[in-house]
Amino acid sequence: MHPGAAQIAPGAMADRQDLVSRAIQDRFRCPQDFVGFTLRQEPPSTKDDAPLNGRSAGSGRSGLEGLRAAGDFFTGYESLSNVVNGDGEFRLPFDPNEVIDSLRLERYWRAPYRRSDRLLKDIYYWLRPLTNQSIRRGIQKFRARNWRKAKFPRWPVDTTVENICENLLLLALQVKGVERIPFVWFWPSGARACVTMTHDVETETGRDFCGDLMSIDDAFGIKASFQIVPEDRYTVSAQFLDMLRRRGFEIGVQDLNHDGRLFDSREGFLRRVQDINRYGREYGARGFRAGVLYRNPEWYDALEFSFDMSMPNVAHFDPQGGGCCTVMPYFIGNVLELPVTTTQDYTLFHLLNQHSIDLWKTQTELILRKHGLVSFIIHPDYVIDPKPNYVYRELLGYLRTLRENENVWFALPTAIDHWWRARSKMLVVPYGGSYRIEGEGAKHAVLAFAKNVNGRLEYEFPARTT
User: Which one, of 76, 226, 282, lies nearest residue 160 by Cα?
Assistant: First the structure.
């Protein structure tokens, strides 16, 4: 189990010292003595305040409302600062790790939402063979018609997890009475944020356009990961896979046959995942993505992949709602999750009816503020026609300008996986009156300091210690 791994089984609610320390360590990798202070948890005042569906709050809307209340509580530094007593101890009505796990694992969305979604999905896939693309788009638009009314997760980017962690570190600064806390910066070489491009290949037409799409990417100096559907959709030849590798692009496995049934039952999933894992070995793929972004992170222990890319940040338009509410990678057991943090091209073009990069730019700027992962899904199937093709080229031009003007790391998913795993094991230790970072890959890491500036967390980079 990685030090930052989300705990699949909720722990017992009790007084303990790790309530804040795990949440802070997960994100910041700072010395334990800065965050190892006493925490005493107070029970929620009513069951409607409990943050987790299926545990404290039973099920139903009370769990979601309780989670929103918990998220709001932890994202307000002023409210947090009021819970500190004179002995350096503070009381919390919620376990912050439980709240974060509920968000990142979408536990708040399980019941009754999954039951209703399952029924609608069954009807949709039963009727799908009788419909054409125009009818399917109409159904999808009808389902998403009330998306503007959804208050949670927050559109167009939800950073509730980041807000919680930042405010808890602010609280640690207050309790410890220090001016700043050292930590391992989020990205190698001090990069402000990270950008990754992925292409999900869904049809034979899309597969045949992959060569042209690689040429477009190369013209802007960007490499991408191509997620391949192994069965039924199209033929996957060794020559096709070799072409992707030879040109410096990456290969991931996308579902088994993209029929929307992967997570219908545990038994069916375990049967299919044997073939999915086999294709991963055959393709030399370290990453997985589920078709249509259907997901159940509680079952990821059966995946023999290093990372997954199926969890959306905000899922207002996806067949499976919810959202992980974070723009940072995180562990689900031994699988690293690289969340999808921007709107898919299909959603932009066909559900929102937008043919501009304005939304993508807005989302990117919001993610940059949190120093997060900007991840895109662009389907070769949907950027063949001139109009969407032009929009995609415009996006690549914007990203190229971003790379030229900002210290942003452009990386393939496997490189991000390698970095985040290495970072999760790094330690900040005292050294010569300051600190240094130890651990494999530390030569690429940058020591940073977090400090409280008028109730807001700010970061600074001292001269690097050698």
Answer: 76
Longest dimension (CA), the chain: 71
Strand extents, DSSP E, 83-188: 90-92, 180-184
Tell me the C-alpha to C-alpha distance, in Å, between residue 225 and each of 244, 248, 262.
9, 10, 22
Terminal-to-terminal C-alpha distance of the chain: 31
* CA–CA gap between residue 19 and residue 1 (Å, rounded): 18
> Is the separation of the CB atoms in 23 and 167 below 8 Å?
no
8 A C-beta contact, residue 90 and residue 84: yes
Instruction: Report which residue type is found at 242.
Output: D
**Sequence letter at residue 421:** R
Going along 124-241, which residue ranges are E strands? 180-184, 193-201, 224-228
In the block, residue with structure tokens 């932009």: 348
Find out whether 306 and 335 touch, Cβ atoms under 8 Å.
Answer: yes
Q: Give 409 or 135, the one with higher predicted confidence.
A: 409
State whether the Cα torsion 133-135-136-140 is positive or negative: positive
Check whether 166 has a pLDDT greater than 50: yes
Distance CA 377, CA 390 (A): 16
Provide the token pair at 88. Answer: 């350096």
366-401, pLDDT tens digit by residue? 999 999 999 999 999 999 999 999 999 999 999 999
